[in-house]
Please model this.
Amino acid sequence: MPKQKLSPKASAAKKTRDLVAAKTPLRRKRKAENQKKRREYSAFKLKGKDVHHGKDGRLVLASIKNNRGNYGKGTKNEG
Model:
Protein backbone atom coordinates (compact mmCIF):
# COMPACT_ATOMS: atom_id res chain seq x y z
CA MET A 1 0.00 0.00 0.00
CA PRO A 2 1.53 3.35 -0.97
CA LYS A 3 2.05 5.97 1.69
CA GLN A 4 -0.42 8.84 1.76
CA LYS A 5 0.89 12.07 0.29
CA LEU A 6 0.02 14.56 3.00
CA SER A 7 1.43 17.95 3.84
CA PRO A 8 3.39 18.11 7.11
CA LYS A 9 0.46 19.90 8.76
CA ALA A 10 -2.08 17.33 7.55
CA SER A 11 0.24 14.47 8.52
CA ALA A 12 0.55 15.81 12.08
CA ALA A 13 -3.23 16.22 12.32
CA LYS A 14 -3.78 12.65 11.10
CA LYS A 15 -1.25 11.30 13.58
CA THR A 16 -3.05 13.06 16.44
CA ARG A 17 -6.49 11.90 15.21
CA ASP A 18 -5.34 8.31 14.83
CA LEU A 19 -3.73 8.24 18.27
CA VAL A 20 -6.83 9.64 19.99
CA ALA A 21 -9.04 7.08 18.19
CA ALA A 22 -6.71 4.19 19.04
CA LYS A 23 -6.66 5.00 22.75
CA THR A 24 -10.41 5.02 23.40
CA PRO A 25 -11.44 2.42 26.00
CA LEU A 26 -13.56 0.52 23.47
CA ARG A 27 -10.76 0.31 20.87
CA ARG A 28 -8.24 -0.81 23.50
CA LYS A 29 -10.63 -3.50 24.78
CA ARG A 30 -11.35 -4.77 21.26
CA LYS A 31 -7.67 -4.81 20.36
CA ALA A 32 -6.89 -6.93 23.44
CA GLU A 33 -9.73 -9.33 22.58
CA ASN A 34 -8.56 -9.61 18.97
CA GLN A 35 -4.97 -10.33 19.98
CA LYS A 36 -6.10 -13.02 22.44
CA LYS A 37 -8.35 -14.70 19.87
CA ARG A 38 -5.65 -14.52 17.20
CA ARG A 39 -3.29 -16.44 19.50
CA GLU A 40 -6.03 -19.05 20.08
CA TYR A 41 -6.60 -19.39 16.31
CA SER A 42 -2.91 -20.02 15.66
CA ALA A 43 -3.64 -23.66 14.73
CA PHE A 44 -5.40 -22.40 11.57
CA LYS A 45 -3.74 -20.96 8.50
CA LEU A 46 -3.94 -17.24 9.29
CA LYS A 47 -1.48 -15.63 6.89
CA GLY A 48 -3.08 -12.42 5.61
CA LYS A 49 -5.94 -12.49 8.13
CA ASP A 50 -6.95 -10.25 11.03
CA VAL A 51 -9.50 -10.94 13.75
CA HIS A 52 -12.32 -8.42 13.32
CA HIS A 53 -15.33 -7.41 15.44
CA GLY A 54 -18.45 -7.68 13.26
CA LYS A 55 -21.39 -5.30 13.58
CA ASP A 56 -23.15 -7.78 15.85
CA GLY A 57 -20.08 -8.07 18.10
CA ARG A 58 -18.98 -11.51 16.91
CA LEU A 59 -15.30 -12.07 16.15
CA VAL A 60 -14.58 -13.10 12.57
CA LEU A 61 -11.49 -13.53 10.42
CA ALA A 62 -11.14 -10.78 7.81
CA SER A 63 -8.46 -10.00 5.26
CA ILE A 64 -5.89 -7.48 6.46
CA LYS A 65 -6.62 -5.26 3.45
CA ASN A 66 -10.35 -5.04 4.20
CA ASN A 67 -10.09 -4.85 7.97
CA ARG A 68 -7.46 -2.11 8.19
CA GLY A 69 -8.91 -0.15 5.26
CA ASN A 70 -12.39 -0.07 6.85
CA TYR A 71 -13.78 -2.16 3.97
CA GLY A 72 -13.03 0.47 1.32
CA LYS A 73 -14.42 3.44 3.27
CA GLY A 74 -11.04 4.67 4.53
CA THR A 75 -10.24 5.59 8.10
CA LYS A 76 -10.69 9.38 8.14
CA ASN A 77 -14.32 9.29 9.28
CA GLU A 78 -14.19 6.00 11.12
CA GLY A 79 -16.26 5.89 14.24
